């Protein structure tokens, strides 16, 4: 069943007296429960596409349809690279925030909050404020909140980009464990091919500006995956090199513009 349908989408921005063609003719279907990573050179329009899906930006032309199965659920939740937590709320209050806004029963909010705090290993830090947390802990709060909201789709914009390698691997595996349980439809932006290979059912590669989808690769490796398995698998190495070459050529084009 299709969860997200994008038809002939283009986006132009006006900057001073010039047009910037950020996205061009994007047509795409994402299935219910699919984990899709979006890769592409800097400035190719990845965040713009995510913002359109989050209804923070309107397409210039074309349509976006998110297939809503439950009207009581939010359509989407977003996780950003940084600053996604509310500084004056505790860890627990941050995770519960979306649920409280929907006026759900206190017992339900408490149970869901507790569940996701445990999933990301933050139960004993529940009373801390964001300024008392490390970068990795803050991202865990954002992930817990996004999943606790139980949205129709999850939009993640380089959520691990600011973390050190070790923390990144741990959070990637935690995210996969929660995703495998919930089977949310996820659209995840990354600059890392390794990250995309580890996480995705499918990788979409975008061209240099104006952003178009130039490659759509199914990643069929069995789950659960680990970075060690991904790096030692010959098929994954082949896909890595293929995407690497194409990405390099798109990055070079960006530099020539
Ligand atoms: N509100 C805006 N007004 C004008 N131009 C914009 C606006 N938002 C984005 N752009 C332009 O649209 C293009 C795509 O930007 P976007 O942030 O979507 O790219 P990106 O692929 O996410 O980049 P990065 O990988 O560096 O985060 C860029 O040229 C950017 O300058």
Relevant CATH superfamily of the largest domain: P-loop containing nucleotide triphosphate hydrolases
What is the topology, as strand order, of the major beta sheet? 5-6-7-3-8-9
The biggest beta sheet, please? 6 strands, mixed
User: Bound small molecules, which ones?
Assistant: adenosine-5'-triphosphate
Which geometry do the CA atoms define? globular
CA radius of gyration is: 19 Å
Provide the CATH top-level class of the largest domain.
Answer: Alpha Beta
Report the total helices. 8
Question: How many strands appear in the DSSP assignment?
Answer: 9
Approximate strand percentage:
15-25%
CATH architecture of the largest domain: 3-Layer(aba) Sandwich
What count of structural domains?
2
Mean model confidence by pLDDT: 94
Q: Distance between termini?
A: 40 Å
Helix content: 25-40%
Contiguous runs where pLDDT drops below 50 for at least 5 residues = none
CATH fold name of the largest domain, please?
Rossmann fold
Domain ABC transporter: 4-233
Keywords: ATP-binding, Nucleotide-binding, Translocase, Transport
InterPro entries: AAA+_ATPase, ABC_transporter-like_ATP-bd, ABC_transporter-like_CS, ABC_transporter_ATP-bind, P-loop_NTPase
Protein name: NitT/TauT family transport system ATP-binding protein
